[in-house]
Structures are given as C-alpha cells and as structure tokens.
Amino acid sequence: MSDILEAFDRAAERASYAITSNLKQQALSYGWNSPVVSKMQVVYTADQTFDVEFADDIREQAMNLEYGTEVIRPTAALRKYDNSGDAEDTLAYFLESEFKKLL
C-alpha cells in the first residue's frame, strides 16, 4: 500500500511543477507582469487540492491582477485555468506514469 501512496505523492509533485509552468504561461498571456508571475507556484495540499501560492511581497498585486481594482481590469487568469480542467488532466497523466512503474 505504501508503494501506491508514494507513487501518488511523486505524481502530485510532478504535476505541481507542470501546472505551475502552465499557469505562469497563461498569466503572462493575460498581461500579468514577470515579477509577479515569477513568485507564484502551485502546490498539492494535504487536503488533495492544487493551490496557487504567492510570495508575500506580491500577493496583493496578484490579487489585483486576478480580481481587478477600480483602475485595473480583472484578468481571471487563475480562475480560467482552474475551470479548464487542465490541472486534473495533468495529475491524471502523471498518475498513470507512476502507477505503470508499479506493474
């Protein structure tokens, strides 16, 4: 059983890196600036979800880009990616890869 859990953890970690890369590309294409994008990452949490984390010094800037302000239009880059199903597809790809190694 621990082999399966270890395979799952490896797949989730690999997926987190891939999803981070994809999300960064999408954020840049929606007009986010490089300093903000460079300080974000996707992590797979203990409650089995992918969460986007930002460095403390750019969190407010990132939220302003995502949700907008009185002078900044919202981009919804994170929400659009979240709704696309790409994160789940990426995890499924890496799960298949890791589980094949167990056979």
How would the blueprint of this fold be written?
Elements: H1 2-29, H2 34-37, E1 40-44, E2 50-54, H3 59-67, H4 77-84, H5 86-102
Antiparallel strand pairs: 1-2
Helix pairs in contact: 1-5
Short structural description:
With 103 residues, the protein is mainly alpha-helical. It has helices at 2-29, 34-37, 59-67, 77-84, 86-102, and strands at 40-44, 50-54. It has one domain.
The number of distinct structural domains comes to 1
The value of Rg in angstroms is: 15 Å
Number of strands: 2
Helix content: 55-70%
Q: Write down the overall geometry.
A: elongated
Structural write-up:
The chain is mainly alpha-helical and 103 residues long. It has one domain (2-97). Helices cover 64% and strands 10% of the residues. It is built from five helices and two strands. The protein has helices at residues 2-29, 34-37, 59-67, 77-84, 86-102; strands at 40-44, 50-54. Strands 1-2 form a two-stranded antiparallel ribbon. A hairpin with a 5-residue loop joins strand 1 and strand 2 (50-54). The longest helix has 28 residues, at 2-29.
List keywords for this structure.
single chain, 103 residues, mainly alpha, two-stranded antiparallel ribbon, elongated
